[in-house]
Amino acid sequence: xxxxxxxxxxxxxxxxxxxxxxxxxxxxxxxxxxxxxxxxxxxxxxxxxxxxxxxxxxxxxxxxxxxxxxxxx
Length: 73
Known about the structure:
Elements (H helix, E strand, L loop, with lengths): L2 E2 L8 E7 L3 H9 L7 E7 L3 E5 L2 E5 L1 H4 L2 E5 L1
Antiparallel strand pairs: 1-6, 2-3, 2-6, 3-4, 4-5
C-alpha cells in the first residue's frame, strides 16, 4: 500500500514507488540515488525527514516528502 513519505514512521524500511514532484526535484533526487524501486530507511522525522538510501543520507523537507510515494519494505 503506497503512502506519502511524510507519513512514514521513524525507523521504518521503505521502498520508493513514485516521485510526484517537479522535474528539477525529481532529477536531483535521482542523482542522489532516490529512484523508483530504491530501498530506504527513515532515520529521523524532526524538522526534516532524514532518509537513508544505500550509503546516502538525504534531508527532505516536509513539502517535498508529501510528493514522494513509498510502500513498506
